[in-house]
Design a protein that fits this description.
220 residues; mainly alpha; Ferritin; 7 helices; 55% helix; 2% strand; signal
């Protein structure tokens, strides 16, 4: 597998504290920060300096419990995707399938690193093995494959494996998109950092679904 591309990161807002005059009855105006605010790019993309209007529009909403559950659940969800991509090299010689699996491995590993960092920076446990998707068990998370489906994929070889991998990974990706939708429906995703993570996951999964559907159609 190739080395990880640059990780997605949240926008960083630098705020200087107000300084009050101690020897006069009139308070001096608070100093205006001249420090640039840098928004880091998605994996493989450069960061950029935000304009004053963009900085003013950044949300400072705090994260909520739904955000924590979403991140923990997505870590479990991505972990299963990595199990699936780990089957590829030994079960198919299809270079197109190997390439898309490699891209998934890189992007989802990067996203997992970012999500674990998000939890750690907020003092939240990175993993909750007993947790569930917004109140549901891990086994019933959208798109999660059953043990039987994983065993079927692991046992397949060649063209049969290619077809099963694409069919099951499309289901898996659609589940991740559903999880993003449920995050916002539950009132989460308002904090800038978690909003960026969720939207990146949604965009990335949609792009890959399109690619996989094209590959699957070419097998008919």
């Amino acid at each position: 597998m190739s080395t990880s591309m640059k990780t997605l990161a949240a926008a960083t807002l630098v705020v200087l504290a107000s300084v009050l005059a101690a020897c006069t009855t009139d308070a001096e105006p608070a100093p205006t920060s001249t420090a640039p605010v840098i928004q880091l790019g998605a994996p493989g993309e450069d960061g950029r300096t935000l304009s004053p209007d963009e900085v003013a529009g950044l949300t400072t909403a705090p994260y909520v419990e739904a955000d924590v559950l979403f991140v923990r659940d997505m870590l479990h969800h991505h972990s299963q995707a990595l199990i699936m991509t780990g089957y590829v090299d030994e079960r198919t010689d299809n270079p197109d399938l190997q390439l898309i699996a490699e891209r998934m491995d890189v992007s989802q590993t990067d996203e997992m690193d970012l999500m674990e960092s998000w939890l750690q920076q907020r003092g939240e446990a990175a993993r909750d093995p007993d947790g569930g998707h917004l109140g549901h068990s891990i086994a019933t998370m959208p798109g999660i494959l059953t043990d039987e489906q994983l065993a079927e994929l692991e046992a397949a070889r060649g063209a049969e494996f290619d077809r099963l991998f694409l069919e099951y990974m499309i289901i898996h990706h659609q589940g991740a998109i559903t999880m993003v939708t449920e995050l916002y429906e539950a009132g989460g995703g308002q904090e800038t950092a978690i909003d960026q993570i969720a939207r990146h996951v949604e965009a990335d999964q949609n792009i890959e679904i399109g690619r996989m559907r094209t590959m699957l159609a070419s097998m008919d």
